[in-house]
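Friendly challenge for the regulars: who can give me the structure tokens for this chain first? No prize, just bragging rights.
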Amino acid sequence: MSRRLRLRIVIAACLLCCARAGSAQDVSLDGAVRAAGLWCFPLVTDSLTYVYLPNQAALSLDESGRPQFSFIRYVIDEPAGDKGAESVTDASGGAILTFLVSYDTPPELRSRAEQEIREITGLPDARLRGPVLFKSGEYSLVSSIILGGNDENRVLATGRAPVLEGNRIALSFELSPEDSKLLLESFQMATPDVSLVFDMVFSGRSPAYNAELVVDWTKVNITNEGTLSGSVYFVGADIELMFERMREDNAITLRSSGSDESMEALLETVYSRLLKLMFEPVKPAELPEGEKQDFMALLSGAAAAAGETAKKASPFGLRVGYTHKNIRSEGETVLTFNHEATQDRYASIAFNIGDLYDEYGNDPDYFRTVNLLDPAFELREVRVGVDGALLPEFERYVNSAAITLRKEHSDGKVTLRELVVDRRTFSSELPDLRMTYGWSGDDNRTRWLEYEYRSHWSFRDGGTFDSDWTSSDKAMINLYVPYERRVIQLVVDEDALLRSNVRAVSVDVSYPFFGERRRQQETLILGQNKPIPEIELTLPRDQFSYDYQITWHIRDAEPLIKSGTASTAVLFIDELPTN
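First reply, four minutes later:
Bragging rights claimed.
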């Protein structure tokens, strides 16, 4: 075994260990320190150990320290045909842009931040261990050229971002001749029209507060004058202003006996709870066609805003849309904050391609124009992009994922290619995930780019899933898990239940998962001031319904049981059945 291979295996093993340990990381949200431009948080279990929020993204570098980037403009010669008497005519073609991006923090910046933490806190033994371990992350491409076209074919380039610092995402785009020329000119400007916005999610511990929040649903509706409905979409800044307006109108009333210094942290905790109670996140790709263009305009401004690091974190995602939940329209809900709770926070990272052209504009390894004169000697290369959140899934649910590519050539021959991704795939620092096919009578160059693919998933509990065949002409296939996690929030008024002699509430949830049925149960014992549990479901994509059974254990009486089917992210467990 070579020294380089042994080093890659050690690195992969460390990454897997970090993925397992991610859920155990518990940071204190109210103990944040800003050092050397980085927001650093102490661990709950060790106040001398800090972790930091990465805030820089750049082009990934290969083993030689060179950027992983290419911009190839190509020309396709075609017979002149009946094009009149002109001696110079247009040829077809276009361009392919490919680049890899990662977010990282230089060692010298980490060292400077650790020294400043010691100076700010007065703790000479304080140390900076490493980056915050993100729960999940997503990115959005901001580019009017790459995502150009008319309103009918405009698309959003989004995807899962890597959850571990230093991992890469690969992006590839095919451009028309006009857009390729525009992009080449843009590369020669100070700020090229290629930016990414990362929206990363991490969790931390918020302290207990002597506070409660009363939500008056009647006043909430009056304040917002009917704008809260499932068909209206918002971004985080809109919702924060909406919550402020609700406070001013006493639609929500916060009662607290804490100090003014803790009010900002308390409000973040309050808004985080309200966000889960009132709104449902919506991914940009799921927006109705009429909403996508407006959302892209918001992202353009967000790309610049993400570079601002003055705010350590936010309960609201920068690139996440929200739609209001259709829940109670009258009465009051009381939320208490007298116990520690784990809260989600968003951190944003911005990337721009920068002045790459100044240094590499004349380097054919990066910028090249080619003439596809002889198609018989060409290979079509299709790369496979791995979802940034896929690595931890191999430790929890997935055995392997196989991508099958099928190309039906013009002469009737069929090329099949298959690529398998499993835990061993990540033992390589730069896994070569790509499939190729050649020329076989494919005189139509546009149709030659077209192929079909499908995925086969093998799960650790024995289940399998086969996707349908999908047609594509893109240079990349994005591999993502065919399921998603949903969190069911349990809403309860403990005081009301205690007055009804209820001692505990059990919630049993069951749901389908690729040929099997899974269950999860949570029990809340009343009067102990413990955090209200949440139920996390792993559902197949586009599957939202689940079955539930709520059991109320009553002092000196038989338990009350309520069963049903739901698809919402909220279960009210303080409403006793009348029968």
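The chain has a mean pLDDT of 80. The longest helix spans residues 3-21. Your move, everyone else.
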